[in-house]
Design brief:
single chain; 5-stranded parallel sheet; alpha/beta; 19% strand; 132 residues
Length: 132
């Protein structure tokens, strides 16, 4: 179980992703943009940030830069369906700026939970946390 900060400006996708994560046993706090996410992260600690990249107020790239600098131990999963440029370009940039994993929209609940598990679970036999 991980304590996750989930950020997406699309209410339907935010609710669906939250449902997948909570069904997987995780504790989820949501935000609808990067500004809200930074405020939440300053109030409480999170093991993992999952953020969309194209959002109003504060984009995901800006959010990743700020939260990675302030909370270097927090793992980050960047998600994107693209925008002015294609999704892969956004996701590649997010990885260069601190994202541990990326997912291109659309993705399944199974894909989301697998990405979360790879960053938060203890690997069988080794006793060490997963690394990307």
């Amino acid at each position: 179980m991980a304590k996750i900060l989930l950020v997406d400006d699309n209410p339907g996708l935010l609710a669906m992703q939250r449902g997948f994560l909570e069904h997987g046993g995780h504790v989820v706090t949501t935000a609808t943009n990067g500004k809200e996410a930074v405020e939440q992260a300053q109030r409480e600690s999170f093991e993992l940030l999952i953020t969309d990249l194209v959002m109003p107020e504060k984009e995901g790239i800006e959010t990743i830069i700020e939260l990675h600098r302030k909370f270097p131990a927090m793992k980050i999963i960047a998600i994107s369906g693209g925008g002015r440029i294609n999704a892969r370009d956004y996701l590649d940039l997010a990885e260069k700026l601190g994202a541990s994993k990326t997912l291109s929209k659309p993705f399944s609940g199974k894909d989301l939970l697998a990405a979360v598990s790879s960053l938060t679970s203890v690997q069988a036999g080794g006793g060490e946390p997963a690394r990307s």
